[in-house]
Amino acid sequence: MSPIFNSIGSNYDFNFSLKALGQIFAPDSDKNLEILKFFLEKEFEGQAFLFYKGRNAIEFALKNLNLPKNSLVATQAFTCYSIEEAIKKTGLKLIYFDLKAKSLNPDFKNIKKIYKKNPQIKAIILQNSLGFANEIEKIYQWSRQNKIILILDLAQSYGIKTANLKNLADIFILSFGRDKILDAITGGACILKKFDNKLDLIQNQVAFRQRLKDLTYPFVCFLIRKTYPIYLGKILHFLVKKTGFETNPIYNPVKKIAPLPSQYVNLIFRQLKNLDQSLKHRQKISKLYYQNLKNISLINQTDIENGVNLRFPIWVEDIEKVLSSLKAAQIYLADRWYRKAIDCGKINCQTDYRQGTCPNAEKLSQHILNLPTHQEIDETKAIKIINVISKLENNK
Ligand SMILES: Cc1ncc(COP(=O)(O)O)c(C=O)c1O
Q1: Is residue 246 included in any domain, yes or no?
Q2: pLDDT over threshold 80, residue 268
Q3: How far apart are CA 285 and CA 229, in angstroms?
Q4: Could you report the per-residue pLDDT of 96-132, keeping only the tens digit for each?
Q5: Which of 158, 215, 280, 307 could potentially form a cystine with 132 if both were Cys, beta carbons 3.0 to 4.6 Å apart?
Q6: At 105, which CATH number?
Q7: Residues lining ligand 1, Cβ inside 6 A
Q8: What's the domain range around 83?
């Protein structure tokens, strides 16, 4: 059986890789960008703007609000640094709120408590981590009462089944970045529900060199995955990391907001076309994990039904022991979301998060393991993962 990964381009098949290669020399197409904009505007009933990255979309959204200088932006701990990066670029300060204990969901009580102490909070960025919906409606109603802008970040949860979703936020953020639900290598969008854009959108363009790197990435990943069992993949993976060809997804190659190059649009539409099928697959694999690992699951059946199941989260006591047993069975899941309350990946970043302020998020990051649900995981592979974990659990 071929090795199992959480990432390394697991959302791309051979045809996708070819399609991406075919985009390298594709001419710019404003029409393609317009078609995508139109699609998103219809979907969310707002004004859509397309960017090279999801974090560009967050930065754009916040700058556009033109908030007073001393405003605070709140978001949940247990996240990656890219959100903080976007907030800081606007010059605004951020504050983190905690999650419920042993849960991926923000603690609404903690949000209210933090707001009471920090009435300068003018915007909240809410995420549905790993593709599971949280109490969006409750938080949105409360935000409106307190005149706080709610930004719903659907980077990990495009497609969640929440009734009336398009009316439950003031701004929506999407990411089409690596390992997201709509993985088109890179890309982001911001949909403004009720604000007009006040920013000049002529900004820096993505260099051809960067596009070349992006668009060859799926093919290289495909080669790595396919040749891993004969060691060639291991060497190739080592080389692409060593040469900087494969960067950490948290690393940002564009320092200023950049618009989406049109060459990524066809890839986004391809993932949109496959979305239903891919969500059904993810749900089926999630259900299998749940049936067999219920005792250590961090989600329940309703979460699986309503969520998009980007990864299946479990709570394990000794994470390193589980990871090494999995590795011995050629199951590589060390790419955990997240390894810290604010995860910088392997880049050197300075988070403003103060240790101890969100204890539940910190604890979660020490115990969470997310199991893959992507297209490469069939039932046999899922059972292989389940067997390794169950054996360790039973021997405790
Ligand atoms: C919830 C969430 N929002 C935003 C982002 C940023 O997306 P991008 O990598 O496209 O900038 C990420 C991923 O890094 C994310 O997980």
Answers
A1: no
A2: yes
A3: 24
A4: 999 999 999 999 999 999 999 999 999 999 999 999 9
A5: 307
A6: 3.40.640.10
A7: 53-55, 80, 82-83, 127, 153, 155-156, 175, 177, 188, 249
A8: 26-192
